[in-house]
Amino acid sequence: MVFVSRLATACFIVALPLFLVTSNVRFLAGDISFYKHGFREYESVRRTGIAQPELDRSAVEIIDYFENDASTLRIVVNDNGQETSLFNAREIEHMKDVKTLMQVVFRTNEVTLAVVLGYLVCVFLWSGERPLRNLARDAIAGVGVGVASIVGIGVFAVAGFDSTWAKFHEIVFQNDFWKLNPDTDHLIQMFPTGFWEEATYIVGALTVAEGVLLVAAAVLYLAMSRKRPPEPGRGSDPAVRAGA
Predict the structure, then answer these.
(1) Average pLDDT over residues 61-87
(2) Is the pLDDT confidence value at 234 over 90?
(3) Residue 244: per-residue pLDDT
(4) Which helix (H) or strand (E) holds 109?
(5) How far apart are CA 2 and CA 62, in angstroms?
(6) Are 141 and 216 in contact (CB under 8 A)?
């Protein structure tokens, strides 16, 4: 029973930061306003030669692609009066890999949510002062693990985001479809490295902010639920308890 309890606690401590990170990645991946901001910030119209409304519509289709059952992303845009495929064969193959990665993120988000909720339910089923205080400590530990990981990644990113981003691709993808030409390939023209650097910092900032709120709530609960020592002459002397 002790082993099961410790295993459940360890799963919760690992699942909590993973849930926060994957939730923020999922939120940003589905936020059309961030795509539109990126297209304007990084001058996607000038880079691609495609009108802004067409790019904005393409973003909606990309978001749908991450969530639907389609295996291939087919986006047709109007380019100087002619309908043409937005992405070439190499870009389409890379988007298949990106979708697989996003599906892993989404499923991880759902599994970690189940672990966190399951742990909370178990704690409240056996609720009492000690379990709830332990829950607060576990939450602090989980946030600590997450923040430490984010800080570690942030150090590498600040030292050189381009090289870190390239290394990430080498580790995650088993092919070189991600190596695109910024002069000819629309995918990297729409989503240059700067776009992903900004997205990474936003996910990191959101996760840290959420972690700070969780830690603040946990510390506040621990402070408020701390047992006060009995006042002198009360609760310890049988004569006092008897009213003598």
Answers:
(1) 93
(2) no
(3) 40
(4) helix 89-125
(5) 47
(6) no
pTM of the model: 0.85
Cα dihedral sign, 212-214-220-223: negative
Sign of the C-alpha dihedral computed for residues 145, 140, 116 and 113 taken in this order: negative
Q: Which helix (H) or strand (E) holds 84?
A: strand 82-85
The alpha carbon of residue 133 and the mean position of all alpha carbons in its chain are separated, in whole angstroms, by 26
- The average pLDDT across 60-67 equals 96
> What is the token pair recorded at 106?
């989404």
User: CA distances (Å), 3 to each of 6, 7, 8, 9, 215, in order?
Assistant: 5, 6, 9, 10, 26
Which residues are registered as beta bridge partners of 85?
A: 76
Quick one: how far is CA 65 from the chain centroid? Answer: 19
User: What is the rounded distance in angstroms from the CA atom of residue 80 to the CA atom of residue 135?
Assistant: 60
Q: What pLDDT, in 10s, does the model give residues 166-181?
A: 989 999 999 999 999 9
